[in-house]
Design a protein that fits this description.
This protein is mainly alpha-helical and 348 residues long. It is 72% helix and 0% strand. The protein has one domain (36-238, 254-342): Rhopdopsin 7-helix transmembrane proteins (Up-down Bundle).
């Protein structure tokens, strides 16, 4: 991507500026007008603040209130931690890189930033995958839910999610699997001082996208389609047997709380897929067409993906009454009162 950026800049300016004027091999730099730079800093900065504080509020809420200590909410907590870390460690350096069009934080931190970026994106979709499994048992097999989705099972799912994500993120970058087979070309033609990109071969981009996004996404869509069909059948069965529902061997119907959780988490999954699908489509296509996708478009699609981490707390606030109630409790300082952790945020 830096190579494309350099070629496009040299075609539009006779003496393009460099990230490091005194260093040989420095990347070229795009200098945006001051008004555009300020506007971008304000927009990206607002995203960072909303992402960090919104997800921090979700984390505090689920940690503090004992009524929320359920398997589903522990998976939501894991997702919120991934989004929070995205806002703290990934988005601020990405903001600096996007606005200044250079990377001034060193090569080693560039590798850490890229690996954490991949890790957290993978953790988000794996968390959503496990949440869909949780919802599948809650809706389709409610009698087996408590025996299958135990605290131990939830802990294992969260551990698998973060360990697999760490292996993919750290392994790809630090073992240089993303440039396997083209190392000489990469270091001779792509790398320059002041650049920080995740350059991938066609095989690397395809395999990583399929493993980290497409397969989990298709599985989630299949599970939620199954949940939707089962919920529809349950609703129809309840409607048809309103006056004769005394059989004891019938599966229990969903409570309002379970229905609300399933609907909300399906929306969160849909938001995630909507925001990240354009990037992953381009990520697979770009190496196949000779890296012709403009770097500015790629950068924009990355920020569209980051926007998902900003939107999740907004979805919670819109659909979950417990989140809105917890927000009021925290703002009013009632969270510091004795036994506030046992406060009822919703009627079960």
């Amino acid at each position: 991507m830096d190579l494309i950026l350099n070629l496009s800049q040299t075609g539009t300016a006779q003496n393009p500026p460099f990230c490091y004027e005194s260093l040989n091999g420095s990347c070229h730099r795009i200098v945006y007008p001051l008004q555009i730079r300020l506007s971008l800093y304000i927009f990206f900065g607002a995203m960072v603040i909303l992402t960090v504080f919104g997800n921090l509020l979700v984390i505090i809420t689920i940690f503090h209130f004992k009524q929320l200590h359920t398997s589903t909410n522990y998976l939501i907590l894991s997702l919120a931690i991934a989004d929070f870390l995205m806002g703290v460690f990934v988005m601020p350096p990405s903001m600096l890189r996007s606005v200044e069009t250079c990377w001034y934080l060193g090569n080693f931190f560039c590798k850490i930033h890229s690996s954490v970026d991949v890790m957290l994106c993978t953790a988000s979709i794996l968390n959503l995958s496990f949440i869909s499994i949780d919802r599948y048992y809650a809706v389709c097999h409610p009698l087996q839910y408590r025996s299958r989705i135990t605290p131990l099972a939830t802990g294992i799912m969260i551990a698998v999610c973060w360990s697999v994500s760490a292996v993919i993120g750290l392994g790809m970058i630090f073992l240089e699997l993303n440039i396997l087979g083209i190392e000489e070309f990469y270091y001779n033609n792509i790398v320059c001082e002041g650049g920080c990109i995740l350059f991938q071969t066609s095989a690397s981009s395809t395999v990583s996208s399929v493993l980290s996004f497409y397969i989990p996404g298709i599985i989630m869509l299949g599970i939620y389609l199954k949940i939707f069909l089962v919920a529809q059948r349950q609703a129809q069965a309840i409607q048809n047997t309103t006056n004769q529902s005394k059989t004891s061997n019938k599966q229990p119907s969903l409570s309002k709380t379970e229905k609300k959780a399933t609907k909300t988490l399906a929306i969160i999954m849909g938001v995630f897929l909507s925001f990240w699908t354009p990037f992953f489509i381009c990520n697979v296509i770009d190496p196949m067409i000779g890296y012709l996708i403009p770097p500015v478009l790629f950068d924009m699609l990355v920020w569209v993906g980051y926007l998902n981490s900003t939107c999740n707390p907004i979805v919670y606030a819109f659909f979950y009454s417990w989140f809105r109630n917890a927000f009021r409790v925290i703002l009013l300082g009632k969270v510091f009162q004795p036994d506030s952790s046992r406060m009822k945020l919703f009627s079960e």
